[in-house]
Amino acid sequence: MTAATGPIEDDLPAVFSAVESEVRSYCRGWPTILATAKDSWVTDTEGRRYLDFFAGAGALNYGHNNDQLKSALLDYLSGDGIVHSLDIATTAKQNFLETFDRLILKPRGLDYKVQFPGPTGTNSVEAALKLARKVTSRESIISFTNAFHGMTLGSLSVTGNSMKRAGAGIPLVHATPMPYDNYFGGVTEDFHWFERVLDDSGSGLNRPAAVIVETVQGEGGLNVARLEWLQELANLCRKRDILLIVDDVQMGCGRTGEFFSFEAAGIVPDIVTLSKSISGYGLPMALTLFRPDLDVWAPGEHNGTFRGHNPAFVTATKALELYWEKPTFAAETAEKGLLLRAGLDEIAAAYDGVSARGRGMAQGLMFTDADLAADVCRSAFERGALMETSGPSDEVVKLLPPLTTSRSDLEAGLQILAESVAATV
Ligand code: PMP
Questions:
Q1: Is the pTM of this model over 0.85?
Q2: Domains, the chain, with CATH or none
Q3: Which UniProt keyword terms apply here (predicted)?
Q4: Which one of 121, 192, 245, 349 is CB 3.0 to 4.6 Å from 271, fit for a cystine?
């Protein structure tokens, strides 16, 4: 969740430390002032270029200032298209809903209603949790170890990270963590504990409304759930009448290859959260998707001023048309993911205590000595690449390049990473 940990001396203008809160984090690892960006590259005010293997934490799957998305946006703005509209019907929203239905839902046989819950990932998660509780009249939610779902109180209650949880300042209740796939290193049978406490009236577990899960835990350190594990989880939820929420905020929109990260497992969640790259341009936008029979909201029961950001609808529609009309983009992403993984495996093979992990274009290197990951990111920054750490101890260098990154730029990034590891370990 950070670009690098530990204090870094910087020579940024004093306004940042004097006026902006201490809560700022990414700028501490990347102490420079960014000015412009194009595709997979960003440029700072000194004219230094950085290869972006961070992509707005997964919000820029189609790169920075993608030409075709930008021209759709500029056309819309120069035609005085509606910018702000709460949830009033607009042409931009109509186009988005029609395109999302035609290119994403229908071809996958997914029968979901679309809610615009507010512009961020955590808005999408809050809506999902509220809806699950309303539908089932139950309070508790099952989450997983090392999960990350956002910073507002509901999302934080199902998030694992103790530092982030402590920031709540109040007890985070009505959520119970269960072991994510491979938590016991394959020693304990999957779901043994979960099934046992569900069925045991003496366990102390309230009957849950829902389970919320990431197919690959991005902030949690690129922990990849096996497809069989996801299938078993979906089966268990169905058998026990528990709603399954897949949080696809970071791994959706093609990050793992297919549009939704759960497609590979062949499961159909009851509720899905999407944000980050759904607008395609880095504009704030989020969706909560759910089965039509779960649509028990009363009009206005879940509200918000920024649920209809039309510029985001415009770029989102264009991105779907450009990249999701044909299966080629997903296939190319899968192929680029393999390229990335092969490069990481090669680096990892040369060192003890370093291993590769991830799925699709969410890949990373884990270091047994956690401090090394931040040092590697710092070294990569000095060599002209943006890479962040993730994991409970920030022990993983996480690579999320834009999916549109060329093969030669992927290789250039791997080269920078290899040099950074060599200089650090
Ligand atoms: N869910 C997941 C899986 C995420 O990775 C994130 C953000 N890293 C969120 C929810 C929260 O999204 P946001 O920061 O936009 O609130």
A1: yes
A2: 7-65+330-424 (3.90.1150.10), 69-323 (3.40.640.10)
A3: Aminotransferase, Pyridoxal phosphate, Transferase
A4: 245
